[in-house]
Design brief:
Number of helices: 0
Largest sheet: 7 strands, mixed
Order of helices and strands: EEEEEEEEEEE
Strand content: over 45%
Distance between the termini: 39 Å
Structural class: mainly beta
Number of strands: 11
């Protein structure tokens, strides 16, 4: 089972940038689709971004399009989330998630298709 460890969170002012990293172990990284989800205060965890096995296809929530970039390095077994022009609404606990090959685009947005999760890294954006 994949082990995921997130890093790179912190406190930043609105308009600032952060880069999240998620390192993995215990798995063949290149066989996993990867995603980032955010949990603001409350029970709901929302989709942020996802990337397919090769890294050639990416998917984003409408709220982050043009500001966030997901990427992966299959040699380093790591997925990244570059976050620019951060807004207070981006505040939350960011989780990295790993799933198998996903055949349908719509399923990249669904947390049910990601089986393994990290512990999360906190991002706080002040206004």
């Amino acid at each position: 089972q994949a082990q995921l460890v997130e890093s790179g969170g912190g406190l930043v002012q609105a308009g600032g940038s952060l880069r999240l990293s998620c390192s993995t172990s215990g798995t063949t990284f290149s066989t996993y689709s990867m995603g980032w989800f955010r949990q603001a205060p409350g029970p709901e965890r929302k989709f942020v971004a996802a990337i397919n096995l090769s890294g050639r296809r990416t998917f984003y929530a409408d709220s982050v399009k043009g500001r966030f970039t997901i990427s992966r390095d299959n040699l380093k077994d790591t997925v990244y989330l570059e976050m620019n022009n951060l807004k207070p609404d981006d505040t939350g606990l960011y989780y990295c998630a790993a799933g198998g090959a996903i055949s349908s685009d719509e399923n990249y947005y669904k947390e049910d298709y990601f089986r393994n999760w990290g512990q999360g890294t906190q991002v706080t954006v002040s206004s």
